Amino acid sequence: MLTKMITSMKANMTLSDKAGEEEQDPTVYLWLLYFTAQHFMYVNDYDKALYHINEAIGHTPTVIELYCLKSQIYKKAGDQILASDYYEEARKLDQADRYLNAKSSRYLIRVDNISKAEATMS
């Protein structure tokens, strides 16, 4: 169902191929990609999850949540270093966000980058 909606949104900006369907806002496509990436992450299909989150990042590269999800996908797939890198990228989009600073530091500690984690927290 999700992939059909994505295909329809790409083709004609509607959620289905039915005639007379209301055209959707472009943000619907973005969050549909986000939700689909989350779904594939939870069913352990990391390649499809990364494909959809990369599509979402390509669509709107300034949304912090996309980088956070990409980091979570890599973490769940077992690549702690890339997970840390993408959380750091999310943090750089809004350096005043204390939650992102703390989360990025936590991911840095997991990969034994203590000095950078301390610098991020300070």
Q: What is the secondary structure topology, with strand pairs?
A:
Layout: H1 2-12, H2 26-42, H3 46-59, H4 64-77, H5 80-93, H6 98-110, H7 114-121
Helix pairs in contact: 1-2, 2-3, 2-4, 3-4, 4-5, 5-6, 6-7
Residue windows where pLDDT falls under 50 for at least 5 positions: none
Number of domains: 2
What structural class should be given to the helix and strand makeup?
A: mainly alpha
Quaternary state of the chains: single chain
Q: How are helices and strands ordered from N to C?
A: HHHHHHH
Report the biggest beta sheet as strand number plus sense, adding barrel if it closes: none
Which architecture of the largest domain does the CATH hierarchy give at level 2?
Alpha Horseshoe
Radius of gyration: 17 Å
CATH class of the largest domain: Mainly Alpha
3D structure, described in words:
The structure is a single chain. The chain has 122 residues and is mainly alpha-helical. It folds into two domains: 1-60, no CATH class; 62-122, Serine Threonine Protein Phosphatase 5, Tetratricopeptide repeat (Alpha Horseshoe), CATH 1.25.40. The chain has helices spanning 2-12, 26-42, 46-59, 64-77, 80-93, 98-110, 114-121. Helix 1 packs antiparallel against helix 2, helix 2 packs antiparallel against helix 3 (46-59) and helix 4 runs antiparallel to helix 5. The N and C termini lie far apart (46 Å).
Short description:
This protein is mainly α. The protein folds into two domains: 1-60, no CATH class; 62-122, Serine Threonine Protein Phosphatase 5, Tetratricopeptide repeat. Helix content is 75%, strand content 0%.
